[in-house]
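=== Structure Prediction Worksheet ===
Name of assembly: unnamed complex
Input type: mixed (protein and possibly other molecules)
Chain count: two
Listed entries:
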Amino acid sequence: MGQDVLTEDGLFMVNIGPQHPSTHGVLHLKVWLDGETIVKIQPHLGYIHRSIEKMSENLSYRNFIFATSRMDYLSAHINNEACALTVEKGLGIQATPRAKVIRIIMAELTRLASHQLWWGCTGLDLGAVTPFFYAFRDREAINGIMEETCGARLTMNYMVPGGVMYDLHPNFQKHTKDVMASIKKNLADYDNLLTGNVIFEMRTKGVGVLSKEDAISFGCTGPTARASGVSCDIRKLFPYSGYENVQFDEILATGGDCYDRYMCRMAEMRQSVNIIEQLIDTIPEGDFQEKTKAVIKLPKGEFYQRVETARGELGVYIVSDGAASPYRVKYRSPGFSNLSALSQMAQGVKIGDLVAIMATIDLVIPDIDR
Amino acid sequence: MNKEELKIAITEILPEITFDETGEFLNVFVPATSLLPFMNSIRSNNNFEMDYLFCLTCIDWKDHFMMVYHLHSKKHRHEFVVKAKLENRENPEIESLSGIWKTADFHEREVFDLFGINFLHHPDLRRIFMDDNWKGFPLRKDYMDENMIEI
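=== Predicted Assembly ===
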């Protein structure tokens, strides 16, 4: 970039990425170091910017939903749901009772699978290889459920305006119950493997502290903010799809360090299992999709819907001029705001700990670049 | 505060404000020149305390730009949308809010990159997604480049 690695005030500039294993994608960080201590970080984004917002302006209200599976690919169901809910808000309809319950179960399965992948990768980033295999074994089981019902394992494209695309697989309930039983047993293994590990605790406790005020000011959401004591679970604050009828706790911690962010996600996995178990036996009978017109046109106006993805608050903002495709779509992605706090969190820590901070923010780069 | 109370309290800060209540949120139209003092007062005023800027974006309405700020108060749990109209299409500019909400820093860079809005007094206004020497602003409605086909 034509820039000297040694700055005038004696700082040393290091490039991390764009092809670094711990960035989980193509993220480029410029890090200024004083010895081993981080002074400043500048993220360089856009390596996989596809301008999904621009593409959506030329897609119909049925089609633009499926582009979002490629944003935060670990929360594909929840992204699709957010768009479907926004369109439903514009049409003034609601999903059928059966579809609502299916949506919650699918969203929680997604959250569980996403947190499992995060847990495995966090272990890997900090030098523990075994957790990765445990996590992927369980994630594979959840992907099996997804594959059975949606026909896909990553880009599910299952949520449509008015409900879900097709009905559940006949085997769904039994399969899900079996998987939940084994995951509940395995979650104890997760703690034995990593949570209580002395090396792991030393690498995460007190590292990368984010204060409550900063978390709000940076717009952090999800477990990243809840570990700093910010109550921001959209499922509790602005319930959608019937989350108000489900019993679960919002996980809060006060330390704001890597360890608390880790513990928040671990506790959230148990809450997700809890939610799925409450609903799996009481899926209402009936239609899985509300009838909608073949060509959807939203009335003139603006529609905003937020949902809680595995990473935090995803906002979908649609501006409609009455045509068959949106005039403007804006995705307020959780990863983008969470990443902006990285420089603040990493100030004054050693460069080796940067990987721990990045792992516990749980960055998914396509979600940031969009 | 509910919508009616918010309207009264906001009018007290700046009398020339207009409202639009057709949508889900209360929309507050602020003249672009008085945006920064208005935002400063709703951030620090104890009755508002809008500490959480959860969405910052821009809309290209072909003859003007509209800046859109979604604001929420963690303490009072009320929220509204602030909008500022930018008439000048050739050289649109508005004060940066990155001194009030830190999240505005990245989001304003995104709007600068994709819409070409110039944020005055922004600490580090560079393109965030596109290449540094990219020509044009992709999310503008009149944007064209050699790879695009007119339908």
